[in-house]
Design brief:
With about 350 residues, the chain is of the alpha/beta class. It has twelve helices and eleven strands. Strands 1-7-6-5-4-2-3 form a seven-stranded mixed β-sheet, with helices on both faces. Helix 2 packs parallel to helix 9.
């Protein structure tokens, strides 16, 4: 339960679509993913000229950094956020400026205050990975007013499907700012992590620039037909959201009983917070010894956090059993210091 994957697996409609198109993989797909872009356009209510697809949002982040900044430029974001952004910024020789979080949340006010003449891009993840926390509509709209139009804002909404029930959640697609690019993925809620499909939505001029540097024939042909089918599988999506809610509620119930601290979440995972990095490392390792794979998020910048995503009923109960055992062992080992 370490990678925020869909415990239900892929959309059944996506699987059937792949099977039907296997005999066509000797053909090149449309280089601009015409059918997929139009399916996304219909799904989200945006013009097709405002959409570009890629092999997951990781590839799109790479294109964005490459297209809209130069070596030595300052790219602004928060500490304790998506590691994929940090990797791309560093890979391309940009200056990564990370602002301290406030109660494990993006501090948009502080980010706005740290904009300089060198700032070219601001990256925001909402809900944030790995914390699961969000910034609300009022905070986001106030922030937008403070950012100069020449600075690009990248809003990564990988977990937006899970956040929609939160009335305070600002859906990026509701905003038409010319300097805003919204990222979405089919890896999480749609269960297509293994075939890599993501898309970006923004002003037509920004999307044109991304088309100039993106690889052709991306995503691949099977990924495209699977994504088109998954976007039409509302029944699967509803089951996914319902299972996520059930699993996380069950985990929270047990964590409360075990006195394990965790953050409020609007995603498909919980971030457990422990007193020290040493204790956190021990907890993660002891779980791993018992067959439970979790994510110690020290590489994200939160050294005392462990992320666990929602699972099937069986996976959730297995995780609870292991975590209960480990908590009991470490309570003795640490002489009740960290209960």
């Amino acid at each position: 339960l370490a990678s925020n994957e869909n415990p239900l697996g892929p959309s059944p409609k996506a699987v059937e679509a792949i099977k039907k198109h296997l005999a066509e993989i000797h053909r090149y797909t449309n280089p601009a993913a015409f059918d997929l872009v139009n399916a996304i356009s219909k799904k989200i209510g945006k013009d097709s000229n405002q959409i570009v697809t890629g092999s997951g949002t990781d590839s799109l982040l790479q294109y964005i950094v490459s297209a809209f900044s130069e070596e030595g430029d300052e790219l602004l974001t928060s500490e304790g956020s998506f590691i994929g952004w940090y990797v791309n910024v560093n890979k391309y020789g940009r200056i990564s400026k990370q602002i301290v979080q406030k109660d494990y949340r993006y501090d948009l006010e502080a980010i706005a205050e740290n904009i300089t003449d060198k700032t070219k891009i601001i990256y925001l993840a909402n809900p944030n990975n790995p914390t699961g926390t969000i910034f609300n509509k009022k905070e986001f709209e106030t922030f937008l007013l403070k950012v100069p139009e020449h600075i690009l804002i990248v809003l990564d909404e990988a977990y937006s499907v899970y956040a929609q029930t939160n009335t305070e959640y600002p859906n990026g697609l509701d905003y038409s700012n010319k300097n805003l690019i919204i990222l979405r993925t089919l890896s999480k809620a749609y269960g297509l992590a293994g075939i890599r499909v993501g898309f970006a939505v923004g002003n037509e001029e920004l999307i044109k620039i991304l088309y100039k540097i993106k690889l052709p024939f991306e995503p691949n042909s099977l990924a495209q037909v699977a994504a088109i089918a998954a976007l039409d599988d509302d029944n699967f999506l509803n089951k996914t959201v319902e299972l996520n809610k059930k699993s996380l509620n069950r985990l929270k119930e047990i964590f409360d009983e075990l006195n394990i601290n965790y953050l409020p979440t609007s995603a498909n995972f919980l971030l457990m917070i422990f007193p020290t990095e040493k204790y956190t490392t021990s907890f993660n390792n002891e779980c791993l010894k018992r067959g439970l794979i979790l994510r110690h998020v020290n590489t994200f910048g939160i050294t005392n956090g462990i992320r666990i995503n929602s699972g099937t009923n069986e996976e959730t109960e297995f995780a609870i059993n292991v975590i209960t055992q480990v908590k009991k062992i470490l309570t003795k080992e640490y002489n009740l210091q960290y209960t």
